[in-house]
Amino acid sequence: MAEKTEINFDVCVFIRTFATRMTEEIKQLKQLLSFPKEITIVTHRNPDGDAIGSSMGLASYLKKLHHSVKVIFPSEYPTSYGFITGIQMAMIFDLDPNAARTAIDKSDVIFCLDFNGLDRVDKLGESIQFSKAKKVLIDHHLEPEPFSDIEFSDTSASSTCELVFKVIDELGDRNKIDPDTGECLFTGLITDTGSFRYGTRPYTYEVAAALKSLGVDDYLLADKIFNSQKEKHLRLLGHCLANRMEIMKDYGVGIMWLTRKDYADFDIQRGDTEGIVNYMLMMENIKVAAFILEQPSIIKISLRSKGDISVQEIAQKYFNGGGHKNASGGGVYASLNDIIDKVKKVMPKYLPKLNV
User: What is the Cβ-side half-sphere exposure of residue 162, based on CA atoms within 13 angstroms?
Assistant: First the structure.
């Protein structure tokens, strides 16, 4: 009994410490936003639903406070998110780096969303690092780098969108979340949890319920996100499942890959491969899925897992990456075959042999 009490005490101390720290950060942020400023919002390269939703949702909220707000994506966003209100006004660093750098230089405040280190924004990182603007981090990844002035970091959060909602709520401005803003934030909840299948906590559902009560049509939103695939996406998925998948049955690992030729044959663009890795986890006994992409200058890898298996550790140790416990990724300068072989050698170190 004594041991159980000690564990609970430690958890309570952590919760109180986190709550106290957040209260102080909220006070600082409230003061920072007390009168109109030039604000820039930046998220990570290859933005996903959470990065896009949190950025556009926060921008929508800040504009209601009469701030001048610009959103910068380091690279182009998937066209499937083109329905999000205001996204066409976002700046793309790869397409107009001078305009993006100018926005950073003129900023009074820079919000950094859904990334934990400046290397995740590539060339924009240096501009942010040397900017005199106040920097605010809102993120749920492990081990954030100490580059921000105000930090809202919570690895137990389902998504950065969940944290943006919490910050707005703690600022006393829940009433400023209209259906358009709410739709942005709900986008991150849906996509980063795999439609609420993983990475959730009780508060995640409280946020979802609050957004729905504020007017978000979650059915229509899910339809926009998941039911807008083009014919080539389904043909690509079929090709991956039929011709580019290998199963390590002894360890419950699924491996899938795409070659440079596949990229050309299927005219694969940014965002076209999103979500494919998750199909392998639908199989019985598969505990880890690896999706390996042969891009022009680098091999990208996406890792997903079930339960207590940490692919974050695998990504960090072997593939120059990181992320979350059950969803991580990385990039390696090597050949496609070398990385496939490396995955096969690494996985037995983390998974027990199955009796199949």
Answer: 26
**Contact between residue 251 and residue 354 where contact means Cβ atoms under 8 Å apart:** yes
Q: Which residues contact 240 (CB under 8 A, 6 or more apart)?
A: 256, 258, 276, 279
Tokens of 338: 């070398």
Burial of 75 (0-12, 13-18, 19+ CB in 10 A): middle
Higher pLDDT, 113 or 296: 113
323 phi/psi in degrees, rounded to 5: 140, -125
Domain, as residue range, for 342: 232-349
What pLDDT digit, counting tens, does each position of 180-205 carry?
Answer: 999 999 999 999 998 998 889 999 99
Domain boundary at 200, 226, 252, which? 226
Chain centroid, CA 328 distance in Å: 10
pLDDT in tens, 112-157: 999 999 988 988 999 999 999 999 999 998 889 999 999 999 999 9
pTM of the model: 0.83
> Is residue 220 domain-shared with residue 334, that is, in the same domain?
no
Match 């059950």 to its residue by tokens: 326
Q: Are 72 and 51 in contact, with CB atoms under 8 Å apart?
A: no
What mean pLDDT is predicted for residues 62-76?
97
Within a domain: 100: yes
Please tell me whether residues 222 and 236 are part of one structural domain.
no
**210, two tokens:** 């609050």
Residues 126, 274: one domain? no
CATH of the domain at 33: 3.90.1640.10
Helices (H), 214-267: 218-226, 231-243, 260-265
Residue 64 within any structural domain of the chain: yes
Asked whether the predicted pLDDT for residue 14 surpasses 60, the reply is: no
